[in-house]
Amino acid sequence: MTLLSLVLLCPLACASNSPPQAYASTRDALANLDEFGALLTRAGLPPELLPSGRELSPEQAKQLRLQFHLYPLYPPKPVEYAPWLVADVLLLDIPLKSTAVSRAELGRRIQEFKPLLALRSDG
Q: Rounded to two decimals, what is the model's pTM?
């Protein structure tokens, strides 16, 4: 009983009130996700590589495709395959048309893929 009261009264046992900053950038990136950002995250892109801004330029789309094909250096996990495929198709379209696309428009385009099923090569 005295041990419990000693632990409860000890100021060292209290947690700090300041929030941990170790994951602050990841937390901020995930807090501001839109439909397109959520797709990229589900496709396996790390939160720190998510693009910012209201539009996606052809150059940003090229860089994202490069990230998807280089990071990670292995094929997408089974759960990431369908989002990865949709993201790749959307990102390929932007440089081909050479115009920036708004994030809202990308969100609308994602909705067009909702009724489709993606079949992996392994079935």
A: 0.70
